[in-house]
Design brief:
about 270 residues; alpha/beta; Rossmann fold; eight-stranded mixed sheet; globular
Length: about 270
């Protein structure tokens, strides 16, 4: 077993101390590549299941999985504090750097790769565009670079499901405060202030190799999301999975494991500063 039990790291963010749930995967040397996993809008450490461990074992890399504030067992978001429209930018440019610093991770001294799903894919793209000296590569699964009508419609359906089905109970298995996790995500995505959100202008700043994967049947976005990345950052490889929805790591696990293994090997995990 390469995955340690989840731990907690205390750090200051948004004017208060927060505890961040995180898990190390010891599948590679401590001075080798590190793969950081960034979860979806309703994700957490536990919701990744065994995918991070399986991938890191295939790669022979260390892994770091964490739950953002408000998710998993990390400090919940106060219910009277809605997420701001720039919440993804704040996660990418404030929370992730603070966590890496608190854990002693220096991407200029070892290869740092980011793997993000959905909102986590957006966070990975934003972080890499602003930290070109420390990110060696990206794998983004069903990322968002803009808000589309299909995204808003599906998130509105999720609201209905949370209020009328057992979705809250299912999320409670993974989140210390499921209301904090759900309403923070749902309210901001459905807010008029978020409708014009876009990170397209940031994408030309990306300098590392990018693997962008999306399901043909993704209910939360069209393929313009991944092809938009490729149009702005030519060193992007796009892979579209047929018969696949919003979660390629769950819908087609083996294919994705093979693809990421091949991509990272071809891109070379070695870093210029090593």
């Amino acid at each position: 077993m390469t995955a340690r039990a989840p731990q907690f790291c205390s750090m200051a963010w948004a004017g208060r101390p927060v505890a961040i749930e995180h898990q190390w995967i010891e599948a590679g040397p401590s001075n080798g590549p590190l793969l950081v996993f960034l979860h979806e809008g309703l994700g957490s450490v536990s919701m990744w299941r065994d995918f991070p461990s399986r991938l890191c074992e295939r790669l022979g890399w260390q892994g770091l999985v964490y739950s953002r504030p408000g998710y998993g067992q990390s400090t919940p978001r106060p219910l009277d504090e809605p997420l701001p429209p720039d919440f993804l930018e704040r996660q990418a440019l404030e929370v992730l750097p603070a966590l890496l610093q608190a854990l002693g991770v220096d991407g200029t001294r070892r290869p740092l790769w980011l793997l993000g799903h959905s909102d986590g894919g957006s966070i990975a793209l934003i972080h890499a565009a602003h930290h070109t000296d420390s990110v060696a590569g990206l794998v983004v699964l069903a990322p968002h670079i803009m808000v589309e009508d299909v995204s808003v419609a599906s998130i509105a359906q999720a609201r209905e499901a949370y209020q009328t089905t057992d979705l809250r109970e299912r999320l409670a298995r993974h989140h210390r405060d499921p209301d904090s996790a759900f309403w923070g995500w749902n309210d901001v995505w459905l807010s008029p202030a978020f409708r014009d959100w876009s990170i397209e202008a940031m994408l030309p700043a990306l300098t590392c190799p990018v693997l962008a994967v999306q399901g043909q049947d993704d209910e939360y976005g069209t393929l313009q999301q991944v092809f938009g990345i490729a149009a702005a950052a030519p060193h992007t490889t796009v892979e579209v999975f047929a018969s696949c929805g919003h979660s390629p790591h769950k819908d087609q696990t083996e294919r994705l494991l093979d693809l990421v293994t091949t991509f990272t090997g071809a891109s070379s995990p070695n870093h210029a500063n090593i």
